[in-house]
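re: that complex we talked abt at group meeting.

here r the seqs, copy pasted straight from the sheet so there may be weird spacing, ignore it
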Amino acid sequence: MQSTDIRQPDYFHKVVDCQWACPAHTPVPEYIRLIAAGRPADAYMVNWKSNVFPGVLGRTCDRPCEPACRRGRVEETAGHTPEPVAICRLKRVAADTKGDVSTLMPPPPKSSATASAWSASARVRRR
Amino acid sequence: MVCVGAGPASLTVARDLAALGYEVIVYDGEAKAGGFIRTQIPRFRLPESVIDEEVGYIMNLGVEFRSGQRIESMRELLTQGHDAIFVGCGAPRGRDLDIPGRVEAAAHIHIGIDWLASVSFGHIHQVGRRVIVLGGGNTAMDCCRSARRMGGESVTVVVRSGFDEMKASPWEKEDAQHEGIPIRNYLVPVAFIHIEGQLCAMQFQKVRPEIDANGRRQLLPTGEPDVEIDCDEVLIAVGQENAFPWIERETGIEFDRWGLPKLDPKTHQSTVPKVFFGGDAAFGPKNIIWAVAHGHEAAVSIDKMLNGEDIQDRPLPATVMISQKMGIHEWSYGNDITNAARNKVPWAPAALTLNNIKVEVELGFDHDLAMKEAERCLNCDVQTVFTLDKCIECDACVDICPMDCISFVANGEEADLRQRLTAPALNLTQDLYVADGLKTNRAMVKDEDLCLHCGLCAERCPTGAWDMQKFLLEMTHAGPGCRSGAGLPLKVAA
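got the structure back, here u go
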């Protein structure tokens, strides 16, 4: 086999089974860590950017991420069936406990310059 | 630009583009925005306050919502000089069932999605004592659980196919059964039985599945007598269809033989360049998260088009890799693996929820349960990254890996290689990570399938050839990042 080209975005993306399975490619482990770190507002904004309706989807999503979750493949079975992480309902936790996120939202674009600045700062550095 | 319909696909387009300074107008026939989210999902699953809040964030970006204005003519819309039009009007037509008695007993038979909307708007407050719901999808589950809350003492779901083939998500079927709603499978509707228009039962033929010569599953009559189920009301939830009576053919927007618009699957562009489709209106009924994904892609197309760029030329997602190493045996992510089982979301008492359709059933995880559940995540985005020229082939990583993911072997074809690893790599949907050209001419091969992302390989490695690096992937959304910068702005949006 050819050596793997790990610079191709798809290669490591596929390893993140939940994110790969999500049609909007929500960075799931990133927001779950933010919840665990006690930062639900940031977890909410990671979701908001990707899937726009975290509170709605945290209750109603068809959850393509969960059948894909690695946990369901590798979990040690201590008398129970291996089950995925409850990704969808953790999304709801971020929405339920985020507090006021209005200051984290992009400003209404009075001028397109402010909007572009938000958009640019919200993007990660491009390779 | 204009969005037709205020469902999740349109609102995603509106958010992505309004935040960039585009002037976005959203039309919808209803008084409030949300589309399917607001009209069809029952309140006991989704409180209206959540919809109001999240729709509000989008409207606050300066989106103009023209409520109660259903677009009746695409031809007319096209004459209004908009730079782009996004069609996100959903799949609004529920399938009907043309069998004897349907017309005569029509007053007691309803199309599921229309009935759910009427319930949601408060136009309907009660249902018959005995209710049959036809269909096996999520709409059927919402119908039966709603009926249960509106006076349906005996609610039965009847499905043509088997339990496992039902389209409803497994947890939605469980939730319905949990509320005492039986699901009866392999019954095909034959007739509505009525006395002078007063519905009293439904007749069903018993069938069994059989695989034909082409491998296709067929439902064949078992030959047993038909089954009758008594009922006062029937809800038909056997699928949804697209309907575009408002798009005139002379506009140049072409449709395929299924009645769906002819679209570029990547850009969502129709046969009229400035008209785009997304959500259920694009490729038929799917779900909310697909509608959102479509909205992002259409917004990229529109942003590029209005900047004079080739909409086919779409940049790959941006990625960042950040080492998680803090010390020799210390990582900036929690790499302990908990063996805890999945936590169940607590429910409000049934006595409460079954008597009021507006009481949310699930209470959500509390703080402690949320923390426990979050700990179960394996951090699959913290990647095992191998640097070939640092490796001294000591095999320490092979020894310590709890899942036998890592091998140092002679390279070969994939099928052969998969068999020769420390543990055979049998899950073909998961890739092998190959680094060829070690000093001994072997290759490092890692099976990604069962890796726990525990970082033990990197802790053990004496030379730092393995590192745990967080992989962040940022999808290409509308905005400067989706543009090449090569095109000239056609027009500066107000």
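couple things i noticed - The CA atoms of residues 24 and 106 of chain A lie 20 Å apart. Chain A touches chain B through 78 residues (CB under 8 Å).
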